[in-house]
Structures are given as C-alpha cells and as structure tokens.
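Reviewer comment 2.1 asked that we show a complete input and output for one of the modelled complexes. We chose the iron/sulfur cluster case, as it is the one discussed in the main text.
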Amino acid sequence: MDKFTTLTGIAAPLDLINVDTDMIIPKQFLKTIKREGLGANLFDEMRFDRQGNEIPDFVLNKPQYREAEILVSGDNFGCGSSREHAPWAIKDFGIRCVIAPSFADIFFNNCFKNGILPIPLPQEQVDILMKDAEKGANARMTIDLEAQEITTSDGQVIPFEVDAFKKHCLLNGLDDIGLTLEKAAAIDSFEATQNAQRPWV
Amino acid sequence: MTTPKTLYDKIWDAHLVDEAEDGTCLLYIDRHLVHEVTSPQAFEGLRMTGRTVRAPDKTIAVPDHNVPTTAGREDPKNMTEDSAVQVAALDKNAKDFGINYYPVSDVRQGIVHIVGPENGWTLPGMTVVCGDSHTATHGAFGALAHGIGTSEVEHVLATQTLIQKKSKNMKVEITGKLRPGVTAKDITLSVIGHTGTAGGTGYVIEYCGEAIRDLSMEGRMTVCNMAIEGGARAGLIAPDEKTFEYVKGRPHAPKAGQWEAAMEWWKTLYSDDDAHWDKVVTIKGEDIAPVVTWGTSPEDVLPIDALVPSPDDFKGGKVEAARRSLEYMGLTPGQKLSDVQIDTVFIGSCTNGRIEDLRAAAEILKGKKIKDGLRAMVVPGSGLVRAQAEEEGLAQIFQDAGFEWRLAGCSMCLAMNPDQLAPGERCASTSNRNFEGRQGYKGRTHLMSPAMAAAAAITGHLTDIRELS
Ligand code: SF4
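Response of the prediction step:
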C-alpha cells in the first residue's frame, strides 16, 4: 500500500451532504476486474453529460480544481455501497485526503486500505476548511498525518484524530494481510477451540 | 457476577482471536459470501502474493449483481462483454480456490443475501461478511453480519479474520402492534426517517420489541437489510423459536447430533436485561404508517398520505440537499404523494425478493391488471424462491396481471444488468436505495413495501394500500 505522511495540495470544496458511492463511481464502471483507471469516471454523472462533455459547473471541472488532492465535503460522505471502487476512483484521480463532518463506515475503512486519509471533523471546522478551499488553486492546505494537523492556506492549524493502528499502517504503507498472517498461530488455536465447541460452524 | 452483555457483545466475544492494547481486534469470520463485482481484485491479490483461501468450506460464491434476469443467460453471449468477464472470473476463482459455488445454471443461484439464509449457511451467533453493504440482512438470525470492501474480502480469504474495532451498541425498540397495511419495510424505512442515514454511524443496531418479535424471519431480514441505510455497521435481531424453526432442516444447518448443542448455545444469544446501550431509540408500532420515499436519500421518508415537503422544511445542509432531490425527482412541494404518477414497478432485491414478499404483492394483484402502459417486473431473489412462487401459483397471478416474471438476480435494484430506468422514468420499487442514478441514469426511485408497489402497479400512481380494498 502507498504511504501517506504529509500532503500539501489544492483542496476542492464539494459542499453536499450524503455524497453516496453511486455518485462517486456509478455502477456501470464497477464491471472491471482491475483496481486502476477508475479516476476518469470519478463523479461521472456529476462531471460529464451523457455525450461525455464536461459539465463546467462541477467543482473538479473548474480550472483551479483540476489538480485537487484534497476534497472537503458534507456530512455522511461515502454512504451507500461497500464498493472499494469508490476509493480506487478517488485515488486514481489524484485525491489522497477527504475531509467531512462524518463518513459512512465501510467507505471510511476502505480509504485506509488504499492510502487515502479520511478526516472527520466537527462541522464548524469543516466550514472553515470549506471556506479555505473555496479560495481556489492558490489556497493550498497541508495535511500532516504524523502531527495530526491540518494547516489552512493562511496558516490556521486544525488538529484531527486518527485511529493509532490505522495511522501506523498509513504512515508505513503496511499491508494488513501480512500483519495478520503473523498471528497465524492465534488463528489456528481459535479454530481448534471453535471446532471443539461449535463443530457445526 | 458477570457483567451483563448485549447480543452484539456476546457474538463479538465468541469470535475474538486477538486484541491489541489500542482496542484493535482480530475477529474470526464464520461465513464469507462472495459475488462477482467486488471479488475479482481480491482473488487477483491472492494470486499475486501466492496466498490461498484459508477456509474454502466457509466461503460461498454466487454471481448476482450483473447477471441478466432473462432466459438464455447461461450463454455468455447473452451478457454484455464486461459482465461476462466478471462472471467468468468468478467461475474460475471459485474453481481454482475450491470454494462453494452456485453458478447461474444452478436453481439455488440468486442474490447472495437470499442464498445464504435459504441454504442454511447463515446461522445464529455467527460472524458473516460479504463484499456488499447489505450483508446486514443476515443479522435477522442473530448473526453479526456486515459489508466489507474488496481489500477486506482479500483479507478474509487469506486469513478468515477481519481487523475490527468494536462499535457502540444501539437499541431500536419497536413497541406494540403494527396497524393494518404496515409491513417490515415500513418499519425499517420509518426508523431511517427517524434517525437519518448517518444516525447509526459507529453503531451496531439491535432491533427488538413486540412488533419485531411478531415479524416472520423474512420480515426481520427486510428490517436488518436496511440497517446500512441508517448508517449502522450491522443490524441484529435476537434469535427465537421462529429463527430455529426457519433454520432447521436447511442443507447447511447443523444435523441431528449437533443440532442440540447448537440450540443450547443459540438460546443464550440475547441481550441481558441490564446490558449497557450507548443509544436507545423507541418507536411505537402503532405510530408507523405505510411509507414511501420522496427524495434521493433513504431518510427522505414520509407516510403515503403526506405532502411532498419543501426545502424550507429542513435545516442546515439538508435544505440544499432537499432542493436538489426535489429537482432530480421532478416533484413540487405541497403535491400529494399519492398523486405522483409512476411508469415502472420493480418487485425484487435482497430487501424484498423473498417468497413472503411475492405473496404479499400477489395478494393485492390477484385478479387485477396493472395500469395500461406501465412496465412492471418481478425478479425473485433466488431460483428457489422463483420455483416456490411458481408452485404456489404466484407467478401466474403476476403474469396475468401484466408483470414480467424474471430469473433471479439483483436486476433493477442497482441496474448493472440490462434492467434499467430511462432518464426521467419513475419507479415504484421494493429495493433499498433511491440514490441519484441508482436504477438507471436520471431514473427516479420511490422506495416502498411489496404490497404498496403492487397497489401502485394497479392504479399507476403512488397508492395508500389502506385505501385499496
Ligand atoms: S439486491 Fe440490490 S442491494 Fe441487494 S445485493 Fe443486489 S444490488 Fe445489492
């Protein structure tokens, strides 16, 4: 997995609540057996018309946000399906950090598995960052995962919380499966006990 | 004295393999359900790292999301090319890794969340995962069941465990009796209307109370299915005699000899009286009305006799969201919901594609015809549901009324196969998501119970089931 340490980049404001996974990557793009290439269709139905032309009003189509690496959005971001295609599309587009008042559970987990940092913050702080993002391309934010701090374009520092284990994996680009396989003995012994106590499983 | 526990606590404790100091846990997974859309990259990952499936006998795969529901689908030529590639990949992965598999040609094929319980794979007290958010469905058996992403699918395939932190406990109690015409779907939609789509975030919900106890296993699955729409990681209902009765004799249920031991454990699976809840929601069963959704979030729920709301009725970010929803849905504030004309009716999905759902819809449709010009389809949740409905004469009722009678799959619930809404087309649907574009680009979805969808098919508009006698 790709590491995430610090990131300084353009933040795009997507001021909508309940941004769902169908919006992030519509189902017609889930018929792939690969992880790559989904960025071209990120927010497809909001970004393009049926003829495939860009909709100029959509934030990521605006010249100042085309290179965005951070997304600031509304409550309950990533609700809906478990499709990991959503974080794959976000990452493939070049976004490595999403900031919102709250995230849907599965999406939140999926982000960490793909080197994306989702940051939940109280609404008032998201409002500050949304305003900052609205300033456009010159307004670069900095995310420092080690220090757990966001610095706005005018130097305001906002601390954030992150789960210690998830932080450790992101900072070091660790593969969960490898870590778990180190505990194979514990899994073996659990299975032995379960086979004795609940053989029907 | 031991500390009182919730049902969630008990299942969690029984599956704990390892707990780190910071509370990060390794949880053992008893059943892993797999489908064609969220698994190819996981199997590819196993191949790339030379890993195997740790417990193939606990892994069950079935294609459901993008398979056509029309005749002749066993022939890949009758699928779009990319769908055929995904289904072929699942065929191959199931074979290569030796996991249980129900191909499209098997009568047991169907929507993964219907197939699991139907074949006795889902049992009380288990941990069940699937690369699909509606895995919550299996919670109806008192199993801890939740959706996972593809990286986690790979993790479970390789290790039969999942890295998890424990969620908080939420109790949703539905007291008393339901009024006539009110179903499990109305309960689950009303709960979401009450708590919002983020209300359950960070929680595992246990549904309880007389109205939940009174539901059949099928109704309980409908309720738990939509726990995810309420933001919860999982929904649970404590197992009882109905659960045991449903499970008994299913192909993968414990056999004689083990059955008694299983029952002994299952009977301990309930929340202790003085267990701690982080949040409690109580709704009176008699306050629940038959409901429909008006917007593009499952929380946009109102009783069928209500009026379309105005954005000004809301606060904060919801004002803009409601404005956007109303525009997308083509509705005017103040309009009667029961005046909204529809073009299509979809009966099916893992929320309402079980035999009881088809019975409820057929009951309304018996001897009636759907409104002229309407498109209506029934997509049974599995081949077994379909066969049973044919045997009971339900298929005939649907066909006589003017419904298409399809093969099993997800179909228009997410419209990855050819069953899609056209732009602007309005659908009365028994599925679980009314997101923008969910059932087809610019398609408009109103969620409701099977009986209400059948009623709408007859009248051609959203209809109060209580007025249709
Ligand atoms: S029926 Fe719909 S919600 Fe259920 S698994 Fe299929 S696509 Fe998902």
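The pocket of iron/sulfur cluster is lined by residues B 64-65, 111, 113, 132, 134, 349-350, 410, 413-414, 431-432 (CB under 6 Å). We note this here for comparison with the apo prediction described in Section 3.2.
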